[in-house]
Structures are given as C-alpha cells and as structure tokens.
Amino acid sequence: MRSTRSTAPVGVSITVPQHWYEFDIHPASRDDNIRRAVNDRIREAPELAEHRPALLKLLRAMARDAWDSGALYCGCHAEEVDGTPVTASVTMAVVSTRSPTGELLDTDPRAMAAALKPKTAQHENDTWQRVSTVDIPEVGPAARSEGVEDVQLPGSPRRVRLATMQTFVRVPGSAEHLAVITGSTPAVALQDSFLDLFDAITSTFRFDHAP
Q1: With a threshold of 0.85, does the pTM exceed it?
Q2: Where residue 1 falls among pLDDT bands split at 50, 70, 90?
C-alpha cells in the first residue's frame, strides 16, 4: 500500500531505544532539530565529536527520505563501526485506505497479509519477503511483511538494498485510515538483528485514544 501523508485521527506513540535520535522531520525545522540532537548526543559522548559531519549528513538524509515517503514520525540510528556507517530508521505514517478509484480497501489483517506476496530467496544474495500476521500488545492483530528488498529512493532513480519490516495496523473507529510502521536499514549483513529490533520497537506502538 502506498503511503501518503495524512492527519492521524487518533493519537499514536512509539518508543525507540534511548541511543536513537528522534526529531521533528518537517522540512522547515528538521535541520535545526537534527543539529540540536547531534550536539546533545556529543555532549553526552564527546568521542562522537569527530563524527559530527557524518552524523549530520546521515540524519538529514534519513529525515528527508522519511518526509518524502509520507511519514509523520521518524526515529533514526546512526553510528560508525570500523569506519563504516551503520544506519537504520523506524517511521510511522497514517495512510488512506481508499483506492485511486475511491473504493475502501479491506484492512482486516488476514486480508492484508493475503494480498502481500511472499518471496523465497533463490540464492544467498537474493531478495526475499516473509508475510505474517502479528499481535501488538494493547493494539491487536496486524499484517506484516519483512525481508530484504531493492527499494527506489524517493525522488531518485537510484535503488538501494534494504532489510525492511512493515506492519499495517487498523486505526480504531476509522475505516479510511491505516497506520504503517516501517523499519529499514541498509546494513543487510545485520538483517537478523535489525529485524528483531524492528519487531521490538513496533511492539511499543500504541493508539493514545480512540475517536
């Protein structure tokens, strides 16, 4: 399902690990917010000072991509390991369930899972996708896809290989809205660890109140 930015009809919340970065991703304010977030982290961990330019660049790129994809929220992880950047992000979007012709799509988790297409890797370096339904505490059942895929970057012809997890959650009392929580990382070699982490983060997703 294609994400388009929408106003959430209910309050939502999600929790990322303490060492992740959280900031407003709106284009008018994100650069200042990212700068403050990085400066705050460097005050806590001065050894990161030499990586400040790289962190700013990585976080700005992730915030821009999140906004361009329709996200309302973005939490980011960025660090350098042996000189190599390791990044990940979790975004949350509220999307319309109406098709281009105006019909409402079926948001029953089993129906959504059935509409997603699993893919088995044909060789070690191939892409793959696993489809399932999961139960989020205090939220209920949701459809999920996870795996490794080649994704076209927003506003660019370039494609990048990512380990991703998308979880599709029905919004209480609204047939026209769906919450989509997406975790992604280009660190495909660490896919198992990051998919476990994305699952843990998604399990913290909550609706603050029903309409």
Answers
A1: yes
A2: very low
Q: Look at residue 95 and tell me if it is in a domain.
A: yes
- How many domains does the chain divide into? 1
Listed in order, strand segments (DSSP E) in the chain are 12-13, 21-22, 73-81, 84-96, 128-136, 140-152, 159-170, 177-185, 206-207
Q: Is residue 115 part of a domain?
A: yes
**119-175 residue pLDDT tens:** 999 998 899 999 999 999 999 999 999 999 998 876 678 889 999 999 999 988 888
- Whole-angstrom CA distances from 156 to 66, 76, 128 are 14, 21, 23
Which amino acid, 135? D
CA distances from 36 to 26, 101, 138, 155 (A): 15, 44, 34, 27
